[in-house]
Specification:
alpha/beta; Nucleotidyltransferase, domain 5; five-stranded mixed sheet; 5 strands; about 15% strand
Amino acid sequence: MDSFEKDARSKGFSLIAGVDEAGRGPLAGPVVAAAVIFSSSLPLKLGIRDSKALTAKAREGLVFGIYREALSVGIGIIWPVEIDEINIHQASLKAMEKAVGELTARPEFLLIDGCFPIKTELPQLPVISGDALSVSIAAASIIAKTTRDRIMDGYEALYPGYNFASNKGYGTKEHFAALSKIGPCPIHRRSFRGVLS
């Protein structure tokens, strides 16, 4: 989980940020990205892994440790209206750009989850399945996922009937049934198939 960080350090980079996003697929809610910089001592002992391989309870348990060990954490959020305007692919990249911009320590090198680079002058390396291969990207995936889940839990109170606390905006059978019965709410992505009948 630290080979990409070691390789970047061997090339002279010290401040390495892992960057990932959560929420590309849901029908509702924002896409959220996070960027995480650790010191030269990576917290491998915490058991940080790809957020998708962890339970919600395990992710929440790792959040404090990540914030404690990180030199800096940045979060970027793109809301549904803008997702509809620029498409989810561009919104995901923009969220990652914003997350990097929110770091209080300027990174020297970026490890980006996926196969697409982001708009930045910083050196970067897209890593396919990076959240399973890099501890920095995995930490970013956990922060992005838990941040987004908390946002969707809040929306449960604002927009009852869709069970956002459970489905987090994803297109479950129950969610589609609610859309058919009561229609979309303000946080639905109108450009997504199945939101508008």
